[in-house]
Amino acid sequence: MCALDAGLRSVAAPEPGVFRPSAAEERREHVREITLLSAHGRTRAQRSLTFADGRAQLPGESISRIRLAELGFAAPDLQVAIPGPSGRDCYVDFGLDDARAWGEFDGETKYRDEALRSGLTVEEVLLREKQREDWIRGCTHRPMARWQWTHLRTADTLARRLAAFGIRPS
């Protein structure tokens, strides 16, 4: 799923806030044509193509979508833009509309990799994330949960994490 999401992202979601559904569908159709060349795995490939979404930015987001589906959540909205306090949109990884909640896959790379921190200290990045999350919860009146790789090992592990925040599928 991660590879399919990345393949769609490369043509349909070149930057945050931009999603070109027609480009995603064109890529899906091209891959569907390839799957027709062999009967082996065709059904699985078609199912995966239908599930794939180029708005998933990281492998952890792709796996999160699989776990959320296993738990019975409706398909989440991805990379949801929320108007920020300075006029710039904030993006949330998952809009769990059926649970009226937000979700974020939170890998450690953005905190540990100096290049991704754009010269900020880990403390500054964490403070900005905290302020962003407070803003999103405050103006949307929705709970937000963050999870990491350890929470994606099984659907039950993610379910327990989300339930701790009062987030369950409808």
Topology:
Elements: H1 2-12, H2 21-35, H3 42-51, H4 59-71, E1 77-83, E2 89-96, E3 101-105, H5 109-112, H6 122-140, E4 144-147, H7 155-163
Parallel strand pairs: 3-4
Antiparallel strand pairs: 1-2, 2-3
Helix pairs in contact: 1-2, 1-4, 2-3, 4-7
Largest sheet: 4 strands, mixed
Compute the number of strand runs. Answer: 4
The gyration radius over C-alpha positions equals 17 Å
Gap between N and C termini: 25 Å
Instruction: Give the oligomeric state.
Output: single chain
The chain-level mean pLDDT equals 92
Strand order, biggest sheet? 1-2-3-4
Task: Provide a count of the helices.
Answer: 7
Low-confidence stretches: none
Model description:
This protein is an alpha+beta fold and 170 residues long. It folds into two domains: 2-54, no CATH class; 69-163, no CATH class. Helices cover 48% and strands 14% of the residues. The chain has seven helices and four strands, in the order ααααβββααβα. The chain has helices at 2-12, 21-35, 42-51, 59-71, 109-112, 122-140, 155-163, and strands at 77-83, 89-96, 101-105, 144-147. A four-stranded mixed sheet has the order 1-2-3-4, with helices on both faces. A hairpin with a 4-residue loop joins strand 2 and strand 3. The longest helix is centred in the last third of the chain and has 19 residues, at 122-140.
